[in-house]
Write a structure and sequence with these properties.
By secondary structure, the chain is mainly alpha-helical. Helix 1 crosses helix 2 and helix 3 packs antiparallel against helix 4. The chain is elongated.
């Protein structure tokens, strides 16, 4: 399992990707809290420290989304849990694809350019280009 970047978790916890990011974060919260019953016993309380990836790290990052250490800790706990639980690993891979797509889409349409320093003859601004660009004659 490829580890999840703490920066992605921090961005999601901090609401950096808007409504789509909030939805992805909510789905991670639900995934972390979902536990299959063991030996017929009821699922563990997601708020206790008895369950791996109990949500404590998730809550800590929510309370301090700019903390690299908390982002790193959550990433570690998710990876450890995925190594121990194949079903969780599968669900986490699906979540990761959605989170990566959200991250890629978050920057779409955002352009920040600055042109300064003297008289400008030609300034061209473009987004994604598919194919050739020919300037001049």
């Amino acid at each position: 399992m490829v580890p999840i970047a703490p920066e992605l978790l921090m961005a999601l916890a901090g609401g950096a990707f808007g409504a789509a990011g909030e939805q992805i974060w909510t789905s991670l919260r639900a995934l972390v809290r979902r536990r299959p019953p063991e030996d017929g016993a009821p699922p563990a309380d997601p708020g206790t420290d008895e369950s791996p990836g109990s949500g404590a790290e998730l809550a800590e990052l929510e309370s301090e989304p700019g903390s690299v250490e908390r982002g790193r800790r959550l990433a570690e706990v998710l990876t450890l849990r995925a190594e121990r639980d194949p079903e969780f690993a599968r669900a986490l891979r699906e979540w990761r694809r959605a989170a990566d797509a959200c991250e890629r889409g978050a920057g779409a349409g955002e352009v920040h350019n600055s042109v300064s320093g003297g008289r400008q003859q030609n300034v061209i601004q473009t987004g994604e280009v598919n194919g050739s660009i020919h300037l001049g004659g």
